[in-house]
Amino acid sequence: MFSYQQEDNTVAICSKRSSIPEGAIWKEVATVPTRLHRSAWQIVGDEVLTDLPLAKLIAHDKRRVKRELLFAPHDMVIAKQIPGQNAGQAEMERVGIRNADSQLQIAIDAISTEADLLALYDSEDM
Question: pLDDT tens digit string along 39-62?
């Protein structure tokens, strides 16, 4: 496998040397990190590593998307004041979602390895 720095400073991986754009800085690498954090890759020596602070930003984006999906049905009840639906109950559900999300935010910030971050994705179904 070959890795190279793209014009936007992200790292790309390819299997053929001929696929590397002319003039790009490249390295031959044996392993590639998970593609989940692809925009956090960086070339360090002869390895492609994941920049953990950038990977955490990706995780926070995933956390926010999940929170918005969980909020959506309750937001509709509150915004539309749907007859027969309890807006107070919907807001209580939103509070529970916010509390769980804040705990997830703290957990992401405390992560010290990419493996732990990937395990958190699995446990939180992100």
Answer: 899 888 878 889 999 999 999 999
Residue type, 24: A
Query: Which residue bears the tokens 């890759």?
Result: 41
Q: Which residues contact 87 (CB under 8 A, 6 or more apart)?
A: 77, 78, 81
Between CA 72 and CA 100 the distance in angstroms is: 16
Question: In three state form, how does the secondary structure of the chain look?
Answer: CEEEECCCCCEEEECCHHHCCCCCCEEECCCCCCHHHHHHEEEECCEEEECHHHHHHHHHHHHHHHHHHHHHHHHHHHHHCCCCCCHHHHHHHHHHHHHHHHHHHHHHHHCCCHHHHHHHHHHHCC
Tokens standing for 16?
Answer: 């053929």
